[in-house]
Design goal:
Layout: H1 4-18, E1 23-28, H2 41-45, E2 50-56, E3 59-64, E4 68-72, E5 78-83, E6 92-98, E7 102-107, E8 114-118, H3 140-147, H4 154-158, H5 169-179, H6 192-212, E9 252-256, E10 259-263
Antiparallel strand pairs: 1-6, 2-3, 3-4, 4-8, 5-7, 6-7, 9-10
Helix pairs in contact: 1-6, 3-6, 5-6
Length: about 270
């Protein structure tokens, strides 16, 4: 699914095309997403002007002069800018028609995404979210304090959005490898010094992925339709059985919380 770097890439990709543009029409071809698209979305948005495009965790926040359109891309969603008269594909569910002849088109084969209208920046889905991983407030001390007494594996701990947002499966694998921490180690047994390293590797791996445009595995494309290229730089994820890029030992795979975890048994003791 799109993770934080993919959502950030989408945010940056669509912003120049929709800022200060006015919505002229809304076409909802399929309202049955993870939550039903509000029936009043068209009435609410037509005539509204986009003032800002931001991100919180994996949610896109499209601020208008009337309120905020909050979008989650779900498992397979993407947003593209294209001419309004471009024939829609089967899974092109929503068009926001702009006043320059283009539209912001939402494509989602699995329909796990969602559209929400907010009068102000308050929603139950945003409550209790942890800090942004690239913010100064997120550091090793934060993770160390939140992990005391926790027996949950450290990989699942850093993927908990209440601890830190946006560290999905791919990037948790990569950050733990870079930090030399075994993914199955209990979160409460990781020392402060190790968490300080892990906080930095999380920032590094997410920052690098954003610069590369995200990670293309199945469905993700950026706001301009171009794929991400960070997958070419993955050190462990999806490379089980291959030699470690650092020590040449064979990478191993385990399952944690129903997700694939790949690690180096030599580098991550």
């Amino acid at each position: 699914m799109p993770e934080l770097p993919e959502v950030e890439t989408t945010c940056r990709g669509i912003a120049p095309h929709i800022l200060n543009r006015t919505v002229q029409d809304v076409h909802v071809r399929e309202a049955r997403l993870r939550w039903p698209v509000p029936a009043t979305l068209g009435h609410t948005l037509v005539g509204a002007r986009f003032k800002a495009v931001n991100r919180r965790a994996k949610y896109l926040l499209l601020e208008t002069d009337r309120g905020i359109l909050m979008i989650h891309l779900g498992m397979s969603g993407s947003l593209r800018i294209m001419p309004t008269d471009t024939p829609p594909l089967f899974h092109d569910h929503i068009d926001l028609v702009l006043d320059d002849g283009n539209c912001l088109r939402y494509h989602d084969p699995r329909r796990f995404g969602s559209f929400h209208w907010l009068e102000q920046l308050e929603h139950s889905l945003l409550d209790h979210l942890g800090p942004e991983p690239l913010a100064d407030i997120f550091d090793g001390a934060h993770m160390y304090q939140r992990s005391r007494g926790r027996r949950i594996p450290v990989k699942q701990f850093v993927m908990d959005g209440k601890i830190v947002v946006g560290v999905g499966n791919i990037y948790a694998n990569e950050a733990l490898f870079m930090a030399g921490i075994h993914p199955a180690r209990a979160a409460g047994r990781v020392a402060l010094a190790r968490y300080e390293v892990l906080a930095q590797t999380i920032k590094t791996v997410l920052g690098d992925a954003i610069q590369q445009g995200g990670t293309t595995l199945r469905d993700f494309v950026g706001g301009d339709g171009s794929p991400g290229y960070f997958a070419q730089q993955l050190s462990v994820y999806g490379r089980q059985g291959h030699p470690c890029k650092a020590c040449k030992s064979a990478l191993k795979e385990i399952r944690q919380g129903g997700r694939s975890t790949v690690f180096c048994p030599s580098c991550q003791r």
